[in-house]
Amino acid sequence: MKNTVIFSGTTEGRLLAESFAAAGIPVTVCVATEYGEEVMRPDKLIEVHTGRLDESSMEKFLASKNTDIVFDATHPYAVEVSQNLRKAADSLGITYKRIERETATHEADFNVTYVKNTAEAVKILEASESRILLTTGSKELNDFLAVRDRLYVRVLPSVEAIELCEQAGIEKSHIIAGQGPFTYEENLALLKRYDIGVLVTKASGKNGGYDEKIRAAQAAGVSVITIERPVSVSATSVTEQKLHISIIGAGCGENTLTLEAVREIRKADLIIGSQRLLEYSIVKRRTCPKEKAYQPADIISAIKEHGSSYAVVLFSGDTGFYSGAEGLLKALPPNADTSVYPGISSVQALSAAFHLPYDHAAIKSYHGIPLDPDEIKTLVKENSSCFFLLTGPADLKEIARILMDCEARFTIYMGADIGTSDEHFSVCSSEELLSYEPTGHLLIINVSR
Exposed, middle or buried, 222 (CB in 10 Å: 0-12/13-18/19+)? Predict the structure, then answer.
């Protein structure tokens, strides 16, 4: 039988230990604090070691237990602990397994600002005057001293946590001690009771109650600052960090972003795109660097310059439809760690708005290039439905004259500023199109016979 050691935070480590014990397998569980020991259910098959260990101490402890396999079930943000444990296990030739906390299922982006660390969070908090509910734990309280007078802190009901609050000068009436995870109702009641304006949390995952906190903040009209989860040591080696590039179709406008796109933008340490795409509110709320670029060489140069490990490159519409994604993919090395996430094109949006199928339609982009009268005449003659992507309103009168030269009557369906708050659609004939004065930036028309 293998000798098993679990390094535990609270929830995942405890559940794993209980699972081994229920199967009749003895395990040793290492916890950092007395509170961690208290939440462990007493069991003759579970031996608990209490106290913080550095890399050297971990190596000695694992050796003393003749450990065959070690499970890292520490908190997702305990990066140094995980790195030390990985090194200790590697030096002894012990199998190391990381238990990843399941991420929350909540995907709404209601007034959530994502930051990399506490320093970025404090910088944002200093610009506001609202009361703050801090739910990131007691260890980093000193990072928030600049906003201490407005700070309400929710911490574990342990002697160590309360002492850290007192040492940081937090008023006793501002200390909220409790064992989570907390329900949506409990979070909502707390936000209302203390008239909180900003909630500071970590992306602690499903078991950490992140979803319940975000939903409560949404209901209470409270802004949220989320400190993002560090890259797991199980995903990369301790000494090597790989580059991942996510190529994303950003849709017609921010309202058409897919959930996949939102997720990748939140994870990015560098965001690259045109100026219009960098103006998306979800992009502007990210504190990571942003670079205006759309040519492959410029994109690759920006990634190298910033030393990015998780770069997101945004392209308008869909990645496979008249997009710069094709050129970038060809420019990247064949073995590059790259993911492509499709978006919603203006063709799809116009099709949906007017119930126009495009399975047998001709589709042609004149975005950024001159109209070709002969080509347009051939397309509308040979196809009952044609989609044309245009550079802007200046193309309208010219295409109207081209269509009027044809011996047919057409119905023109137009979409402008699709995916924005100024989105509008209209229908007209070729003759009416000649005198049409659009507002906004025209993106696409459909010509149907």
Answer: buried
